[in-house]
Structures are given as structure tokens and as C-alpha cells.
Amino acid sequence: MPDASRPAEVPADEPRLHAVLWDMDGTLVDTEPYWIEAETELVKSFGGTWSYELGRTLVGNALPSSAAVLQQAGVELPVRDIIDRLITAVVERVRHRIPWRPGARELLAELREAGIPTALVTMSEKVLAEEVVAALPPDSFRLLVTGDMVVHGKPHPEPYQRAFDALSADHPELRKDRAVALEDSVPGATSAQAAGLVTVAIPHVVPVPAAAGRILWSTLAHKGITDLERLLDATEAVPAEATA
Asked: Which residue pairs, CB below 8 angstroms and at least 24 apart, start in 171-174?
């Protein structure tokens, strides 16, 4: 009788890697500095003070949570207005230049060529995500899950669970132990792990500590499908320097 506690074997003719779910800010694109610049400008416009270090504490958070922190820093605006101002400022910067993270577009292109489903799972709102995706080849992502589409943002599992469920509607064979999430922050990695996905953290602006079931890479540069497939059976955190 089969052991129900063990994942089913992947058929020999089936790709080992079923899907890749991507974070955006800090993972696909290096936009965290844009966010911190926008926060600094907004806080200063209300006579408050902000810094790069304070901005780093908000990396990966849901925008309503970040807006609440900015209110405490002196921004006398409703949460929705704060979010709108930040997004407008970041979109303007992205339209001028998109700072891609090393290896991200190359890996995304390889996944697209291989027909492996991908989703973008970001706490940025749709208007910004679509600006970034529009600069990529068509069909680079099968779907987007953005901060304005969920009730609970990262670190809650809802964003990644929603993306997985949407991909599963078109790919019923999709399994969580064969789906990899790529993240750059603790809230993001926590969200992906809580949703049951194989989680790779690529720290950038902020450190991501090792944790059980979390794999750490120092970069996506020169990483490909084969590298992702090697991780599918990983159950313990691996130091970044051991997987770089």
C-alpha cells in the first residue's frame, strides 16, 4: 500500500520542475532603492525624517503596513493616499529605467522557452507590476498576483497560495513540492514557505537568515532550470556561499 506521507514519484517523462513563482521588487528588479527614495521624499515633505536604514526595515512588507509606519514617521495622509503617492513615484522611476537583477531575465527566458509556468507574486500594486512586465517578452509570466489583489499580504501565505491555485486551474498536475518560489526578503520567504512551496531566498537589500526548508542563493546570475531542479528535494537551509 502506498505511503501517503511521501510525495508521489514524478513520472519519468514529466518535468521535475512544475512552476516558478517570482517576487518582483528586489528579486526580478532592483527597485527597493526606488521605494526608499520615494519614502524619504514623502516623509520629508511633511517635515519628518527618514533614512535608507529605516527604509530597509520595510522591504518585503505589504504596502498598507509600510504606509502605517510612514504615518508614524509624520506623514499626515490616509493609508491609501500614501500608497498612491509611493507607487506613482516608483512608476515614474521605472519608466525612466528598469534596474534588472543579475540573472533574472536570463532565467525567466529559459523557463519561458521550456514552457514551465511562471507567476509574479508581488506586494507592489498592479499598475507597477504591469509596467515591469511590459518590458519583458510576451508571456514571460502566466499570471500576476499583486498587493491590491489580496486581503492579506506577505508574510501571510495568501499571495503565494492564490498564485498556486490560479496556475493549478490550468495545470492540474502542479505540485507544491515541484514549485519553486524566488524571494529576496524575510516576509516574502515566510509567505512562500507558509504556502508550502520550495523557497529560494536571494538576499539583496536586507539579509535573509537561514531557516529550515529555506534555500539561500547569493545571486541568480548563471542559474538555470537544472539548478532549480537540484533543489526540489532540499529540506534544510543551505548557506548562500555553499550554493552561489
From this structure: 171/18, 171/19, 171/117, 173/14, 173/18, 174/18, 174/19, 174/117
pLDDT digits over 32-72, tens only?
899 999 999 999 999 999 998 999 889 878 899 999 999 99
Q: Residue 192: which H helix or E strand, with range?
A: helix 186-194
Contacts of 227 (CB under 8 A, 6+ apart): none
- What DSSP state is assigned to residue 48? -
Cα distance between residue 46 and residue 68, in whole Å = 15
Whole-structure pTM value: 0.85
Q: Which helix (H) or strand (E) holds 200?
A: strand 198-201
- Length reported for the chain: 244
**Cα Rg of the chain (Å, integer):** 18
Q: Which residue has the cell 509596467?
A: 131
In the structure grid, which three cell numbers stand for residue 169, read together?
486551474
**The predicted structure's pLDDT at residue 61:** 83
CB atoms within 10 A of CB 52: 13
* Low pLDDT (below 70) residues in the chain: 1-15, 234-244
What was the pLDDT predicted at 236? Answer: 41
pLDDT score at 4: 42
82: DSSP letter: H
- What Å distances lie between residue 214 and 120, 188, 204, 237, CA to CA? 19, 11, 16, 5
Task: Report d(CA 18, CA 35) in Å as an integer.
Answer: 32
Residues 63 and 153: beta-carbon distance below 8 Å:
yes
pLDDT of residue 93: 96
